[in-house]
């Protein structure tokens, strides 16, 4: 279906579609490739930038935590805290001065940095000493719930960083006497979460996403704010243990990219989780301009294609219009080509050919007119001769029937038959002129068939289907009698049983249609062709030549009087019956011919 439509469409449309399709494919390929290259470059550059940012976070994190560790270590080394913690004197005075020294030490350490929230020292006996910046905050309770003293002691002076339940950051470190390397206790410093989260906040201002900081035990150390569901999914599934630093995963139907950077000695792991949609959100402008470019390009290309295809096919349209006009009336208008390309040369050749065809047509037309006039005169002679004499077969049968019925049935029917016969002869011979109304022609046929019904009795049945509005139409005289006679003699007479003749008249597409249908023996297709085209297939044999001549006469009269569109059409099937249809123009009394 589509293939046939494409094959049969106009050449201009084919050019237009071809140009548009080529340009569309080209623009789409370039735009799509540019889009995906741009998106890929954005993802790649964003990934590299993300890796750089969290690398900077790792450096800053290492520096800030090392500053705290150095402060705690230098303060411890420059003090006498090691001796005080190792003191074994149990007098009240010694204990008082010992506790006072420890509290003074913690207070001094507390105010070294504003980010310190609490300082706690735990001696050998596990007794805690602490100071807090805000007494309303119970940092010590949070610390003791989270602190594992044995783990801190086993690290042999290496700091342990962890996050409290309420977000406070803690650094715990075991203390050893420097001369003896003997364990004397531990110190814990609590920091405000902003000390570390400020690093992450600055990064979030540059790139959206979750930034997580894990300590050496892979425990979440920062941020202290509420984590997103994606971050929880990442931590719960331990995706930070992947061997590659860059990985992708899917959560809730969305794609994410994770970047994991480890600092020196794996002290910290810095993780950034970025939604791919956030990376490509700036590509919406690329998409917008890509689509806009495609649409504008297609519009310009379409207008150019219309102009180009119109110029290419201009000569073809002129040639087609001239050929169409020439095929209708053979009146050729000389084509003036708009160019001297192949189509222009073809138009010039068509001008020459059309002139020759026009001359030839005029010659043939004149000859045809002369031939038609001669045939019409001959047909008129045959018609007059046919009108002047009734079918001898019919007359002989009628007279014989009259004679037989006079003997058998009596004078009434004989009188009726003689009356009808006389009326029929008077109508056929008495009316002058070649045209009469359809009502008069039907009346003649009704009288004609009434005689046949008396002859054949119940063997013949006639059915009329007539349109009263058509009864005033003018038809050629004596146009139905040959058709009805042919139905009786060639159809019904040779068939056993009852014969039915249908006579129908109707209008169709502005023409008058008259049909005579019988259920007789029918005819072969070859016989139908011979009957309508005797000059092509040869003349019929002498059997029933009278009715054959009548049908041929009806066909020729109609075509000569009204044109090739009009005349007889015969549909017949052997053993079933025959329908003879005659098509005539609808002519009222004013347009009839006399």
From TrEMBL:
Pfam families: HAMP, HATPase_c, His_kinase. GO terms for molecular function: protein histidine kinase activity. It is found in: Cell membrane. The chain crosses the membrane at residues 15-37, 286-308. InterPro entries: Bact_2-comp_sensor_kinase, HAMP_dom, HATPase_C_sf, HATPase_dom, His_kinase_dom, Sig_transdc_His_kin_internal. Its EC number is 2.7.13.3. It comes from the Bacteria. The keyword Nucleotide-binding applies. Residues 310-362 form the HAMP domain. It catalyses: ATP + protein L-histidine = ADP + protein N-phospho-L-histidine. SUPFAM superfamilies: ATPase domain of HSP90 chaperone/DNA topoisomerase II/histidine kinase. SMART domains: HAMP, HATPase_c. Residues 479-588 form the Histidine kinase domain. Gene3D superfamilies: 6.10.340.10, Histidine kinase-like ATPase, C-terminal domain. PANTHER family: SENSOR HISTIDINE KINASE YPDA. This is histidine kinase.
């Amino acid at each position: 279906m589509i293939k046939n439509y494409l094959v049969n469409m106009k050449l201009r449309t084919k050019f237009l579609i071809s140009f548009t399709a080529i340009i569309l494919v080209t623009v789409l390929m370039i735009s799509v490739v540019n889009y995906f290259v741009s998106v890929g470059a954005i993802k790649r550059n964003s990934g590299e930038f993300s890796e750089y940012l969290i690398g900077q976070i790792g450096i800053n994190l290492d520096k800030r935590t090392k500053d705290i560790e150095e402060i705690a270590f230098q303060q411890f080394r420059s003090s006498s805290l090691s001796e005080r913690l190792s003191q074994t004197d149990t007098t009240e005075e010694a204990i008082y001065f010992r506790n006072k020294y420890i509290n003074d030490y913690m207070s001094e350490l507390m105010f070294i940095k504003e980010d310190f929230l609490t300082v706690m020292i735990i001696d050998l006996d596990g007794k805690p000493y602490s100071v807090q910046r805000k007494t309303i905050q119970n940092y010590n309770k949070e610390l003791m719930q989270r602190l594992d003293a044995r783990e801190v002691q086993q690290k042999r002076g290496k700091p342990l960083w962890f996050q409290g339940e309420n977000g406070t950051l803690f650094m715990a470190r075991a203390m050893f006497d420097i001369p003896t390397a003997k364990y004397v206790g531990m110190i814990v410093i609590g920091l405000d979460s902003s000390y570390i989260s400020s690093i992450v906040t600055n990064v979030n201002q540059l790139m959206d996403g979750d930034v997580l900081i894990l300590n050496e035990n892979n425990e979440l150390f920062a941020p202290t704010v509420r984590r997103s569901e994606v971050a929880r999914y990442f931590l719960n599934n331990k995706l930070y243990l992947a061997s590659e630093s860059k990985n992708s995963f899917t959560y809730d139907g969305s794609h994410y990219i994770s970047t994991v950077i480890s600092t020196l000695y794996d002290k910290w792991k810095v993780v950034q989780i970025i939604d791919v949609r956030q990376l490509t959100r700036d590509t919406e402008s690329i998409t917008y301009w890509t689509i806009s470019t495609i649409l504008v390009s297609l519009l310009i290309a379409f207008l150019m294609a219309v102009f180009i295809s119109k110029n290419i096919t201009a000569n073809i349209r002129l040639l087609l219009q001239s050929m169409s006009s020439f095929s209708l009336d053979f009146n050729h208008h000389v084509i003036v080509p708009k160019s001297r390309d192949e189509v222009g040369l073809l138009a010039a050749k068509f001008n020459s050919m059309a002139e020759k065809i026009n001359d030839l047509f005029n010659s043939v037309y004149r000859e045809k007119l002369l031939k038609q006039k001669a045939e019409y005169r001959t047909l008129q002679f045959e018609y007059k001769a046919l009108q002047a004499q009734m079918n001898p077969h019919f007359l002989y049968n009628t007279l014989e029937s009259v004679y037989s019925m006079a003997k058998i049935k009596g004078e009434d029917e004989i009188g009726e038959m003689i009356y009808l016969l006389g009326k029929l002869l008077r109508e056929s011979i008495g009316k002058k002129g070649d045209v009469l109304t359809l009502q008069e022609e039907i009346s003649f046929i009704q009288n004609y068939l009434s005689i046949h019904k008396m002859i054949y009795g119940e063997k013949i049945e006639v059915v009329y289907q007539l349109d009263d509005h058509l009864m005033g139409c003018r038809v050629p005289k004596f146009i139905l009698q040959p058709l009805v006679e042919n139905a009786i003699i060639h159809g019904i007479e040779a068939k056993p049983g009852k014969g039915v003749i249908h006579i129908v008249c109707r209008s169709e597409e502005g023409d008058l249609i008259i049909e005579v249908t019988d259920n007789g023996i029918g005819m072969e297709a070859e016989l139908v062709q011979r009957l309508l085209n005797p000059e092509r297939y040869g003349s019929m044999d002498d059997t029933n030549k009278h009715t054959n001549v009548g049908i041929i006469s009806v066909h020729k009269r109609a075509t000569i009087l009204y044109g090739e569109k009009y005349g007889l059409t015969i549909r017949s099937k052997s053993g079933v019956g025959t329908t003879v249809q005659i098509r005539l123009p609808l002519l009222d009394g004013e347009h009839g011919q006399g």
